[in-house]
Amino acid sequence: MSPGAPALRPGLETLAPYEPGKPIEEVQREYGLARVIKLASNENPLGPSPRVLRALRAAQKQVHFYPDGSCHRLRQAVAGRLRCRPGNLVFGNGSNELLVLLGLAFLRPGDEVLTSDSSFVVYYTVPKLMDARLVTVPLREYAYDLEAMAAAISAKTRIVFIANPNNPTGTAVRPRDLERFLARVPPGCLVVLDEAYQEYLDAGFRTPSLGWVRDGGNVVVLRTFSKAYGLAGLRVGYGIAPREVAQAVERVRPPFNVGSLAQAAALAAWSDAAYVRRSVALARRERRWLERALARRGYAPVPSQANFVFLPLPSGTARSLFTRLLRLGVIIRPAGEASVRITVGTRPQNARLLQALEKISPARRARPD
Ligand SMILES: *Cc1c(COP(=O)(O)O)cnc(C)c1O
User: Fold this and answer.
1) Are the C-beta atoms of 120 and 268 separated by less than 8 Å?
2) What are phi and psi of 108, to 5 degrees?
3) Which atom number of ligand 1 is nearest to the Cα of residue 225?
4) What is the DSSP string of 32-60?
5) How far is Cα 101 from Cα 202, in angstroms, rounded to an integer?
6) Could you read off the pLDDT of 205-249 as tens digits, one per residue?
7) First vs last Cα of the chain: how many Å apart?
8) What tens digit of pLDDT does each residue of 169-208 get?
9) Ligand 1 center to 102 CA (angstroms)
10) Are 198 and 70 in contact (CB under 8 A)?
11) Cα angle 215-104-88, degrees, rounded to a multiple of 5
């Protein structure tokens, strides 16, 4: 023990550093591979929109200036299309940051944060950061169990995190079930609807969630430019929130949390409706194709409402499938010991994944227990 370093704040010992999906270059280096595809982090396989690239070139001449701390132009554009007031929007360094800022603004020590098991990892770190208590409810058939969640609300529940669709399972909840759940949430408890994959939902799952956000209310909707808009590397997310909640986030938000290149790119991506349509159409077409192809090979993919597919496996085999695929130049993401998550790629990428699975061992077709 060195004498100088201060002790970690109690409660943070169990907080592990986030383990991101492996970058392509690292896998190329480690395994001596030329062609590596990444289907690990739900990024947009089309690459950035050409409009974004043009906007970035124009904006780079201004990088000696601090960014616009209020994201003014982006705010106006988003508010215009979503028909909300600019003051009902908050912008973050990815929606990840907004999840943390909501915790910072509202959680007191001992408060409860309610969410589901097997959901987005940041929901589990936020309560730890704030000395709040995490309460989780098991998934039911791979989906959020809103009945059980409602039953788990206590007088101490301050924030409820709901990923819709869920990451990593790709399932969505029915709009009427969500509406029924919201009716059971008491005042003073904030419901955060994380809609990072909202664009990929089939018609029957589309929720009128923006209509549930009203001043004086307790629903916040989070969305992101990282997935369908193709900007994961630039880090822009936003929230549509009751005015009081937006103002609370403004109090704790670092002044220049969204960079100038990120703002310029997000504005360009926001206006490129054709790119988003193409991205979503590709993901929906290919997830169907991939689900069927996997099913034909004896796997049991969970029907997805997002741009990734969740694959239950025999217990204890997820790691080995992950490393075997790595050796063949395909990066996916293990999700615990008994499942993996695979981002839906382009057709050639998905075909390559299937070839690799076939090569690993056609006889060892994994089936869920
Ligand atoms: C990808 C993802 C996000 C978006 O994160 P950013 O910080 O905006 O890149 C948020 N929530 C969930 C559940 C996600 O999977």
Assistant:
1) no
2) -100, 155
3) 8
4) T-S--EE-SS---TT-S-HHHHHHHHHHG
5) 30
6) 999 999 999 999 999 999 999 999 999 999 999 999 999 999 999
7) 46
8) 999 999 999 999 999 999 999 999 999 999 999 999 999 9
9) 15
10) no
11) 25
Verify whether ligand 1 is closer than 6 Å to residue 119 (CB atom).
Answer: no
Nearest CA-CA partner of 227 in 138, 318, 165, 135: 165
Q: Distance, CA 81 to ligand 1 centroid (Å)?
A: 21
Nearest CA to ligand 1 atom 7: 94
Ligand 1 centroid – CA 154 distance (Å): 27
Kindly state if the Cβ of 120 falls inside 6 Å of ligand 1: yes
Give the tens place of pLDDT for each residue, 61-113.
999 999 999 999 999 999 999 999 999 999 999 999 999 999 999 999 999 99
Q: Is the CB of 232 under 6 A from ligand 1?
A: yes
Whole-number Å distance between alpha carbons of 12 and 8: 7
Buried b (16+ CB within 10 A) or exposed e, 296-317: eeebebbebbbbbbbbbbeeeb
Ligand 1 pocket, 308 CB below 6 A? no
